[in-house]
């Protein structure tokens, strides 16, 4: 029987990345309490969040494979969550201005009889930013649903001087590693484009 991928995420960015590499999936949104995870270590936290999200979605039959992920932005080992308001967003982006920060995405892939959990880290360097640039950006809706208060795939791209690592990891899913791991679970991209 053909394996079926279940994406345990409401993120439109993760959905778009999977569509880009032509992996069909259905969505089941996990319900977890993220505040239960107390660690301040970004790699530990993102890995645990991905694992809990994946385990919160039940497997209905032996053909299903669950994919869950979580992305965290950290600067000087301090985790930058989604901003609460404009002041918070301004402070976050100001702290990243002219500096290098880390983006971690934790991933959990599981089937009935196995589980794989891993995390990828990408370094992102911002140009030094003027106050007006930051204010113009936080006036958009973009920063408020994103860790670190920016999205590299939209307006936030203009802040980025360089990245070291996987671009898609910053968007929310390290797709090249994910595809390689999914193959071990019997899920493959349809790179011919045939449906």
UniProtKB/TrEMBL annotation:
MF terms (GO), sorted A to Z: nucleoside triphosphate diphosphatase activity
EC nos: 3.6.1.9
SUPFAM superfamilies (UniProt xref): ITPase-like
Entry keyword annotation includes Cytoplasm: yes
Residues the record marks as site: Important for substrate specificity: 13, 71, 153
NCBIfam families reported in the protein's UniProt record: maf
Catalytic activity: UTP + H2O = UMP + diphosphate + H(+); dTTP + H2O = dTMP + diphosphate + H(+)
Keyword field: Cytoplasm, Hydrolase, Nucleotide metabolism
EC category: hydrolase
Family to which this protein belongs: Belongs to the Maf family. YhdE subfamily.
Identification of the protein by name: dTTP/UTP pyrophosphatase
Cofactor entry: a divalent metal cation
Ranges in coiled-coil conformation: none
Functional description taken from the UniProt entry: Nucleoside triphosphate pyrophosphatase that hydrolyzes dTTP and UTP. May have a dual role in cell division arrest and in preventing the incorporation of modified nucleotides into cellular nucleic acids.
Subcellular localization(s) per the UniProt record: Cytoplasm
Major localisation: cytoplasm
Catalytic residue positions: 70
């Amino acid at each position: 029987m053909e394996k079926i991928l279940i994406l345990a995420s409401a993120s439109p960015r993760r959905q778009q990345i999977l569509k880009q590499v032509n992996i069909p999936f259905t969505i089941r949104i996990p319900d977890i309490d993220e505040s239960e995870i107390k660690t301040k270590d970004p790699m530990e936290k993102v890995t645990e969040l991905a694992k809990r999200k994946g385990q919160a979605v039940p497997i209905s039959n032996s053909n299903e494979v669950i994919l869950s992920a979580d992305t965290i932005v950290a600067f000087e080992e301090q985790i930058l969550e989604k901003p609460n308001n404009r002041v918070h967003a301004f402070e976050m982006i100001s702290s990243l201005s002219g500096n290098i920060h880390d983006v971690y995405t934790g991933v959990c892939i599981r089937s009935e009889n196995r589980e794989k959990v891993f995390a990828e880290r990408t370094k992102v360097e911002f140009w030094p930013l003027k106050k007006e640039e930051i204010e113009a950006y936080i006036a958009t809706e973009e920063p408020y649903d994103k860790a670190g208060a920016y999205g590299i795939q939209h307006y936030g791209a203009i802040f980025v001087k360089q990245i070291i690592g996987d671009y898609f990891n910053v968007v929310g899913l390290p797709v090249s590693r994910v595809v390689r791991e999914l193959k071990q679970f019997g899920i493959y991209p349809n790179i011919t484009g045939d449906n």
